[in-house]
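Sequence, structure tokens reproduced for absentees:
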Amino acid sequence: MKEPDEIEKLIDEISFRKSNSKNYEKMKAEEISKELREIMKFEQISFKKIDEFKKAQQNPDLIQYAKMICKNTVEREVAQLQEIYLKKIDEEYLNSK
């Protein structure tokens, strides 16, 4: 019965990330770049854990839920980062020429 606890722990981590978004507007382009790498790494690690849970196939509904919220959370955060990142690049690099 250890697996559902681990899946729920992962879901909590994803939910915490979703609710704990940062103020990217105040960051410089380099900082946003680091955040983008961090979210991609988070996504890779999360999906790796989800795949491990999937192999055990003990709670497919909970596994599917974890996969769905991870995908949605990462997509939302990346979209937000992209918009701000492009604006910061314009401000910091293109306007400095």
Remarks:
- The radius of gyration is 16 Å.
- The first helix runs from residue 2 to 19.
